[in-house]
Amino acid sequence: MQECTFEIARLYYDAGLKIEQEMDLPPDHIATELEFLAYLVHNESKAAENGDIEKMEFAVSLQAKVINEHLGLFVNELAASMAEHSHLPFYRAVASVLQSLFRGLEAKAAQPDLGKENLSACPA
């Protein structure tokens, strides 16, 4: 495994996940990393609902690491290349969704305290 593979696998471990030997995709595959990011966003949401600031901040910090140190390093370039070179509308649409998603996620990662003001609005 390469260093970036070990790094992302460590983030999975830090989040309490276990990598199974039978996984079809490597830990640093874009699909695996996107699924992990969805898992972290879900954990952030659940922690906010429960008023658990510590868990929410931890999920946000892991999201920022995934975005800034892994997915953010190549997703925008990949999406732009897909949009430019794909002849199929499906892949151009996937590229557009990835670009939009990462604009929002990168903005959020740049402001990790963004979710805290919403915590007070959660029901007790």
Secondary-structure topology with pairs:
Blueprint (H helix, E strand, L loop, with lengths): L2 H12 L15 H21 L2 H17 L5 H11 L3 H22 L5 H4 L5
Helix pairs in contact: 2-3, 3-5, 4-5
Features:
mainly alpha; 0% strand; globular; disordered C terminus
Kindly describe this structure:
With 124 residues, the chain is an all-alpha fold. The protein is 70% helix and 0% strand. It is built from 6 helices and no strands. The chain has helices spanning 3-14, 30-50, 53-69, 75-85, 89-110, 116-119. It starts with a helix and ends in a 5-residue tail after the last helix. The model is unreliable at 114-124 (pLDDT under 50).
Summarize the structure.
This protein has 124 residues and is mainly α.
- What is the element string, with H for helices and E for strands? HHHHHH
Q: Rg to the nearest angstrom? A: 16 Å
Q: Find the count of extended strands (DSSP E, 2+ residues).
A: 0
Strand proportion, as a percent range, falls in under 5%
Distance, first to last CA: 45 Å
Q: Which regions have little confidence, pLDDT < 50, spanning 5+ residues?
A: 114-124
Largest sheet entry: none
- Overall, the morphology is globular
Number of contiguous helices: 6
Sheet/helix structural class: mainly alpha
Helix content: over 70%
What is the average of the pLDDT values?
85
